[in-house]
Amino acid sequence: MIEGTLVRLRAFERSDVDANHAFVNDMETLRGMISGIPFPASMEDEYRWLEQQSSYSRGEYQFAVEDFQGDLVGRCGVIRLDWKNRVGELAIMIGTPYRGRGYGKEAMQLLCDFCFREMNLHKLKVSVFAFNKAAIRCYERNGFTQEGLLKEEIFREGAYQDVVILSRLQG
């Protein structure tokens, strides 16, 4: 378990399935999180996803983000790894009722520290939809800088949207 002052990062448990299912079926969350069609997940989908989250994983390391009242508030982790070049791609999702409380900022800080100190990664990167201003602010507050812009990369709500690429180096 990795603890900050607002949240802790921990392994997923079976008891997290209901809260996680609610988060990923929230249309606002889906809209800002996936580049594909924002289609709801079944409870069976959630159980399958949860069963893949293991300390024996080889390439994706997802943490449950929990507040100090024991509530699951979201998830964060490394979604792609390039071990040769020591580059990790990160992602984070904080559930709708928990946004705006600093949980995402601290969870990302804890995740970055873990990636640099325990995984010995050199570079961390994220892709975020340009309309997701809160996520961009969260990354920038954690030392990420814009590295690129993918013009009209995704189709969302009847229009093509840009994707911002941000990164942070170790050190």
Verbal overview:
Strand 4 (72-82) and strand 5 form a beta hairpin. This protein is α+β, with helices and mostly antiparallel strands and 171 residues long. The longest helix has 15 residues, at 103-117. The chain has 5 helices and 8 strands. The protein has helices at residues 17-24, 27-33, 43-52, 103-117, 133-141; strands at 2-3, 7-10, 61-67, 72-82, 87-94, 123-129, 145-156, 159-169. The protein has an 8-stranded mixed beta sheet with strand order 1-2-3-4-5-6-8-7, with helices on both faces.
Describe, in short, the structure shown:
The protein is of the alpha+beta class and 171 residues long. The chain is 29% helix and 36% strand.
Question: What is the fold's blueprint, element by element?
Answer:
Elements: E1 2-3, E2 7-10, H1 17-24, H2 27-33, H3 43-52, E3 61-67, E4 72-82, E5 87-94, H4 103-117, E6 123-129, H5 133-141, E7 145-156, E8 159-169
Parallel strand pairs: 5-6
Antiparallel strand pairs: 1-2, 2-3, 3-4, 4-5, 6-8, 7-8
Helix pairs in contact: 1-3
